[in-house]
Amino acid sequence: MLKTPYLLFLGDAPDPLAAKVAQGIKDWRPEHALGQLRLEGCQADMRLPDMTIAEAVEQGARTLVIGVANRGGVISERWLDVLEQAMAAGMDIASGLHNLLTDEPRLVDAAARHQVALFDVRVPQVSYPIGDGKKRTGKRCLPVGTDCSVGKMYTALAIDKALKARNVPSDFRATGQTGILVTGQGVPLDAVVADFMAGAVEWLSPDNTPEHWDIIEGQGSLYHPSFSGVTMALIHGGQPDALVLCHEPTRTHMRGLPHYELPTLEQLMAVALPLARIVNPACQVIGVSVNTAAFSDEEATAYLEELEARMKMPCVDPFRHGAARLAEALLAC
Amino acid sequence: MLKTPYLLFLGDAPDPLAAKVAQGIKDWRPEHALGQLRLEGCQADMRLPDMTIAEAVEQGARTLVIGVANRGGVISERWLDVLEQAMAAGMDIASGLHNLLTDEPRLVDAAARHQVALFDVRVPQVSYPIGDGKKRTGKRCLPVGTDCSVGKMYTALAIDKALKARNVPSDFRATGQTGILVTGQGVPLDAVVADFMAGAVEWLSPDNTPEHWDIIEGQGSLYHPSFSGVTMALIHGGQPDALVLCHEPTRTHMRGLPHYELPTLEQLMAVALPLARIVNPACQVIGVSVNTAAFSDEEATAYLEELEARMKMPCVDPFRHGAARLAEALLAC
């Protein structure tokens, strides 16, 4: 579990998109985002106070989070200097980068010297159990997608927020590196060894009070041949009471696989629901979350109305319209 | 890839079942099984020539395969003595034990000293790619089970043998430690990191000639919540043209999960076939393989006849009756 609040390191981000991890933290856990640290040439701005390391520590920052992708997969000397200063000032460092902090001798030495921690959130930190499929108390919702990268994390975070706004006890359960950095904890599921995937999801979403909802971050897609096994483990380890179907209507083929068409929402539902009912016979599909970023407001509204008439359940874009209707559908189920 | 032929080490097996790895090699790759080495008190016998290490090496043995489970998860001093002698005589050592050869300093030292190899077949030896789902040439068959441990490996080996008997080019593709020791190569799929599972199966079963069959060893079950993600990766990475449903009719609940009933064969087919058709729209279920060990000959025959009338496809116990009809069904598809 990462110590909060964070100083968000934006480095020399070449554009705002490169800082999407920082943006996620700012959007979803603003109470963790104390300030930002930008290097010369940084093209991203979270509209947070710019801080030096000394200022951040003085104001209580506990962890420097690398909120930006690095260029060319190398942690540059400029970055290393900053990270070392942060450790010298007593901060932990957290990163979701592919190349690991713990592979950088300078950082490992500095962490030992200053008795602070390096968190590579892509690396599992726990020996997860083998799943046992036992029914757990509390309720669970899992977004499943017609493809990878259609907005499952965003959907889960938005539902979690909408439940909390209704004073319903809820936790977003992160299963990927961005989600883990946003919430400070979770399971990097795609890095877990096959035999322990379902058990890791069970560990992530333990018994809870009857009215509590875990909103579990989805991964992959049952229709994406590269990663469907991870999705399967989420469905069986997650034991969802409710599935939300996630979709991006302008995508022409499965992400990275031009030889695969996307399934329809009906096809996804026909495959996902029987699988979910193996572990939770009461599971229902309660709504559809659509990423309508490619549409105008009018197009989005027209698309969602048509889809809702077809699917006969709430169909919303949580970014455009919020997740209130999905939260209401969850509470009704 | 393990060097053949093998000397099968049966150790101090407390009963024949403990030596099932050795039995598998003897049954399915007798040409690899040069002889056996038994310690005092060994209750297993492969009916192979008993050999000392010197005799085995003289007759050409290249690898000592640990064909027996160890007691209490410890590699005993007695075993270590034998393994060290085998290495001194120039043999590699291969093992599917949970506790690894490479965790034993004595063995690691001896391997370096004698320039031989230690193969822990539970540990992936390859950096597998991420799966790409591209259609591969050649044909593939995958057994899928109503549960774990219902005879999927046996079924695959029996089909492979029946195809070879018909001069059809065929390979058994091992995905578990016993299968890897039997054939000398394969992927220990349950130890592969989640993101690479499907890619590992694609790697295991590459492009081949159009008439060639890969018979891929199954793992887990779509209905077994602990391991269904592994099964899913096999279905999507394996890209099967043909599925064989595997079943053990007297089992009262899912293995290790008394709170889960077994699905019917129809339920398994209804879930598995649409998933397989995502990567291979031509995929068919060509038959059922039943483990009738708990039945008399008469009961088995009656059960299979009734099942065949119900399923309208060949239903056989390959152990009792051979896999000829499954092989014929494959060739017809």
From TrEMBL, chains A, B:
Signal peptide: none annotated. Residues 130-326 form the D-glutamate N-acetyltransferase-like C-terminal domain. Gene3D superfamilies: NAD(P)-binding Rossmann-like Domain, P-loop containing nucleotide triphosphate hydrolases. InterPro entries: DgcN-like, DgcN-like_C, DgcN-like_N, P-loop_NTPase. Residues 39-124 form the D-glutamate N-acetyltransferase-like N-terminal domain. Pfam families: DUF1611 (PF07755), DUF1611_N (PF17396). This is DUF1611 domain-containing protein. It comes from Larsenimonas rhizosphaerae.
